[in-house]
């Protein structure tokens, strides 16, 4: 399975539209078997969706994102784990351990107050 994370330095980019770097991580079970960095323009939905499709991405991890973008991404077959924040490597470790993403929820998104609980674990499509 491949997951893509919008990144800013070593952190999940806080705003989807402002990200310019995408980390594509290939996961096999509890191991990372590949990584690739891609330049991106998420605000250009069509080209961003093509980038995800060309890289066989099944899950997008990102910070704040508008509902329009989520709907477009999900309609293209990509699961979205939005409103997440924090350092990328600990997030990947949490993902590999099959834990939910609650500790990475953006402030105000904990306790199910927003995001409709979308930051919980998205099951892999293995």
Protein described:
The structure is a single chain. The chain has helices at residues 45-54, 67-75, 88-96; strands at residues 2-8, 11-12, 21-28, 31-39, 59-61, 79-81. The protein is of the alpha/beta class and 126 residues long. The protein has a single domain (2-117), classed as Nucleotidyltransferase, domain 5 (2-Layer Sandwich), CATH 3.30.420. Strands 1, 2, 3, 4, 5 and 6 form a six-stranded mixed beta sheet that branches. The longest helix has 10 residues, at 45-54.
Shape: globular
Overall radius of gyration: 13 Å
Strand residue content: 25-35%
Query: Could you please say which CATH topology applies here?
Result: Nucleotidyltransferase, domain 5
Report the sheet with the most strands, covering strand number, pairing sense and barrel closure.
6 strands, mixed
CATH architectural arrangement: 2-Layer Sandwich
Whole-number average pLDDT? 88
Tally the helices. 3
- Give the helices and strands as they follow along the chain: EEEEHEHEH
Category by helix and strand content: alpha/beta
Helix content: 10-25%
CATH class: Alpha Beta
- What's the N-to-C terminus distance? 7 Å
Count of strand segments: 6
The CATH fourth-level homologous superfamily: Dinitrogenase iron-molybdenum cofactor biosynthesis domain
Query: What number of structural domains do the residues give?
Result: 1
Low-confidence stretches: 116-121
């Amino acid at each position: 399975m491949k997951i893509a994370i919008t990144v800013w330095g070593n952190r999940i980019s806080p705003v989807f539209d402002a990200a310019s770097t995408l980390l594509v991580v290939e996961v096999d079970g509890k191991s990372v078997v590949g990584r690739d960095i891609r330049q991106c323009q998420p605000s250009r939905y069509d080209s961003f969706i093509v980038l995800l499709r060309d890289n066989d991405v099944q899950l997008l991890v990102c910070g704040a994102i508008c509902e329009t973008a989520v709907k477009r991404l999900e309609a293209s077959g990509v699961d979205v784990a939005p409103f997440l924040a924090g350092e990328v490597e600990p997030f990947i470790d949490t993902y590999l351990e099959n834990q939910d993403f609650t500790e990475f929820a953006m402030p105000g998104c904990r306790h199910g107050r927003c995001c409709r609980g979308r930051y919980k674990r998205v099951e892999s499509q293995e």
